[in-house]
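Ticket #4471: complex job returned nothing on first submit. Input attached below:
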Amino acid sequence: MMPRGRPRALGAAALLSLLLLLIGFFLFRGHPEYGRPHGVAALEGDPPADHRGHNSSDCVPPRPLLPKCELLHVAIVCAGHNSSREVVTLVKSMLFYRKNPLHLHLVTDAVARNILETLFHTWMVPAIWVSFYDADELKTQISWIPNKHYSGLYGLMKLVLPGALPPDLARVIVLDTDVTFTSDIAELWALFANFSDKQVIGLVENQSDWYLGNLWRNHRPWPALGRGFNTGVILLWLDRLRQVGWEQMWKLTATRELLTLPATSLADQDIFNAVIKEHPGLVQTLPCVWNVQLSDHTLAERCYLEASDLKVIHWNSPKKLRVKNKHAGSFRNLYLTFLEYDGNLLRRELFGCPSPPPPEAEQLQQALAQLDEEDPCSGFRQQQLSVHRVHITFLPHEPPPPRPNDVTLVAQLSMDRDIDFLPAHSLYDYLRASIEQLELRSGRKVALVVPAFETLHYHFSFPSSKVDLLALLDAGALYTFRYHEWPQGHAPTDYARWREAQAPYHVQWAADYEPYVVVPRDCPRYDPRFVGFGWNKVAHVMELDAQEYELLVLPEAFTIHLPHTPSLDSSRFRFSPTYRDCLQALKDEFHQDLSRHYGAAALKYLTALQQPQGPT
Amino acid sequence: MMPRGRPRALGAAALLSLLLLLIGFFLFRGHPEYGRPHGVAALEGDPPADHRGHNSSDCVPPRPLLPKCELLHVAIVCAGHNSSREVVTLVKSMLFYRKNPLHLHLVTDAVARNILETLFHTWMVPAIWVSFYDADELKTQISWIPNKHYSGLYGLMKLVLPGALPPDLARVIVLDTDVTFTSDIAELWALFANFSDKQVIGLVENQSDWYLGNLWRNHRPWPALGRGFNTGVILLWLDRLRQVGWEQMWKLTATRELLTLPATSLADQDIFNAVIKEHPGLVQTLPCVWNVQLSDHTLAERCYLEASDLKVIHWNSPKKLRVKNKHAGSFRNLYLTFLEYDGNLLRRELFGCPSPPPPEAEQLQQALAQLDEEDPCSGFRQQQLSVHRVHITFLPHEPPPPRPNDVTLVAQLSMDRDIDFLPAHSLYDYLRASIEQLELRSGRKVALVVPAFETLHYHFSFPSSKVDLLALLDAGALYTFRYHEWPQGHAPTDYARWREAQAPYHVQWAADYEPYVVVPRDCPRYDPRFVGFGWNKVAHVMELDAQEYELLVLPEAFTIHLPHTPSLDSSRFRFSPTYRDCLQALKDEFHQDLSRHYGAAALKYLTALQQPQGPT
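Support reply: We reran it on our side without changes. The output follows.
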């Protein structure tokens, strides 16, 4: 435990902001890469791969829409915490149906880049490449445009993509973060083939009467062809746009319209429509199913009732999922499908599209291949090798300014369980003061022990001081942690001495000791062998001791455990002899490693443990 | 609580066998129906629905493969508990991608019919029709064939489908329960169009060398064309099969082959292949992607590496998901996608394919439409209206023979929480004896109270008798239930009297009383208003009292609550004022209903509750 400030109230928020998304094995070969892929562009022109060397009874797979393995490019503007969370549902829906390698071009602010870079790096979906473009650098090109739309400045950035994306990128699909795919994006990409020589932008007609200007009295929308077009889904033929002087074109139109109109109401969409009204030859109208718009007064129904299939749903009301619609339930079910989808299941190969894995994935692959599936502990060993998909700052979070002697709380939780330890109100300030007084910044190797207690009641008035806590302990409302089940786990903390202590005191390591500790950042890490229930803290404290860390108990520090249902792993420990046997095998391996690293000094751990093993 | 025998050991199994699958709202219009749909056949020949009355700027949706809303027919043989569970994953994958109405023809034994009839009836997916055919009636037609395949007699039933399915059914897709769709079944149905006039069966080539007969020395497979065909996915042109005399044809071939071969090794597949060897003109070879076979020595790789797309995965190894394969991880991820998929999300309409809802769905629809979404309690009211998808006997379960004075334990649980009450070992027999002694079979209106206790420890030695229990109570290892948080919930049980009681004793209803009771089947039901945390038992006991049920405490009966994490709903109750306000509104409505039904006699409940409300 390494707590940081305002621990009680901010506990849940701080932890959620560190949320580690669910676990999966890394049993595939591809990888995401940062920056443009090398040698991928050549695949774009490959012929369809339907040469078969089989005998005549072999069947003929249906012909693909596009050359197999053709790389498709997608651009998305994404800024802030909320959009970074929303875009994941879009990406999951897109990856679910896709059969082609994809290159994502993400125009992001610093917050979104930080989140999405970590996410894609750890997600490790095969045959995905991700490039980031700095939204702040593009701001000057559009910040002169007054805009009233809720997407703010970022919506307008779609206008400058032809200049912002790499000059050799010829075509791209541009998506808003609030769309959901219900079909393969390759079918959308294939619509580029329908463009005439002069067409540069593919768009779906706007599915509301907004641009007809009759929604209310004095409603004065920007000019548009008929109902205009919606820019939630765009096919951009970038090199042609550059040739026709797109930048001058839209700036001229926007400047002229802004002489009589006060601001854009719908951000980039108003400007795209004004340009198209002036140059109708630029636009290729896409089938309506590629952007089924669920805005407040949508006319989309006549599209999706007649079509054989929905392709993309666009939640383009500020109400998003709560929008009123006759078929809202069905649309929500499609969205929830991908909101709830376990993204780890997208770690699947594109069969027949080679995508060289990065070196670390290769090593992992080899390690996994060496696992013996008949080994009853192979489940443990696979878990050790698992790579977690990480979504940092899942909820909006501003890191506080750094303070001297700062401490950070590190914890883990699952989506279905509230956190089970609450630290003392004053712990953050007290720890920082203790670090100062004990001069721990000097690099002194010390683990500060925070004594742990437990309550068995769901309703519980948290003690505001050590005096309060001792009163609750004496009244039987609190116990020392795991007093009933496993007292030896915390016995060396010496609770009797702690009651009376006025100053920090040293304690000695003993077998099974597993206190909650505050340690410097550069301390040994947890051993990933012990991923389930049992021995993770024991092994960590043993390693701290082997590295000659002092164990120093703080007289005013405490933390309290709240009741919860036993975890699945703790039940496995109790009921599965295999689980216990495997844990024993892992302990033996850990001891062998200790001996290798620390030599004779590590003997004491083995000696201390030549006793019947308990369930720690 | 209505406990039945062997409660301790069989508790979990019995409950799992009653498993209620997750909850969803019924926000759609279609329905499943039993028996053949009326008026649907006419839709089969409808022209493609791409007539559009829009103005010229309207886009053209892509042309469907089949006429929109064409009804497709699928036949599956399914018997026993395990296949009934497996087939749900197949059905989910098929429904996920389908865009057409489907009619499922299920050939089932009594177990599978019971499970699947309940499942589809409660699932209420729009535009699905289900017909059942009795497998037992078909057995005599195939039981003469010796068979060594693990699918047993049921595998062979695919041979007799042309005779078993309705005579006016012209074409059907036949599926094994161990296939997973990764594409729209309409694409498979569309392959009927490729049949020549003489072709009657569509099959994918077998993706192993089995029928080449060189797998081991003296391996003598049934005759086949080359590698033969796999019958996990079949297109059957039923009316042509009937015309060509299919029944005589396969029986003749099977009889002849069985003169020299001892039995079928691969059930129906051996016989289909032998017939095709003799009449190669009958077969239309389907593209390999429609049956990617992951058997132990599969040759499927050359199919799926070259194809643009997988369509159907067939887990045709007895090892199923544990089969060894270079790409096992990716295939498993596809399977897990549908295993884990929340089937309630499939309650979505086929837009533009009208499918008249049954009367009860219509009523529900109207009730939902009348909900005011701005009402802060609308979440509660939606939950009241929710219809659960029910999978009975999720695990194999043989109902015990009926016994006199029988009692059944009714409970609920979620997938992530172990059950939280354990009844006394002897409770089942004791309850039956008590019912006999108290002559309750006569229709006397009695609710037997089972006193409840609780332990706060995860490790706990269950008392074997009342004497044991009282000793634990005196030692502080047990408490009366909710002693700390809400003693009034069980106070009227009068634990002091229970300690000494030798005979059943009457107790009186009081405000907030919520004992666990054993009641006759015809007692009032729980009120669905109180679906979350709070007041479900209180309301039920109040209604029992209003109907003049005697409350009789049994002196030797007891049940013990084990610790668990507070549920999400109990946290909502504690932390959300809206939740508490809504619960209060529902209580008020309940009291109004009580007054309406029971008149002045119900006044006492209102009077008793004119006190500050607690968290029951």
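The radius of gyration of chain A is 30 Å. Closing as resolved unless it happens again.
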